[in-house]
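Justification of computing resources. Each target in the renewal requires a structure prediction run like the one illustrated here; the chain below, 119 residues long, is used simply to show the kind of job we budget for.
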Amino acid sequence: MSGGEMYYRNDEEVEALIERRYRELLAKGKEAELRRRQAEEEARRQEILRMILTPEARERLSNIRLVRPEIARAVEDRLIALALQGKITQPLTDEELKSILAEIYERTRRDFRISIREK
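Resulting structure tokens:
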């Protein structure tokens, strides 16, 4: 192998390394952009919730989020949709939030029945 061939191979390797590093940086940039967008969306959601819930209701919702995040998310989505439609004109109280939670609980509750069959 002559020195020229070795140099050519190294150039290809360097180009491949540069390309791989460029793709890594591009992927990191896209991830950072996605995280930034998600953070902005969450900030908007929290701002809307601050406007449409009393402090007690917000506290109840945050407690639910700790235990049942999927239920809290469903309630938040529903409340935000109602707010954006203009159907919530004043902040919801803790009692009103309890009522909504009871409704959702009834719809999502699973009934378990155990039956014993004798042979």
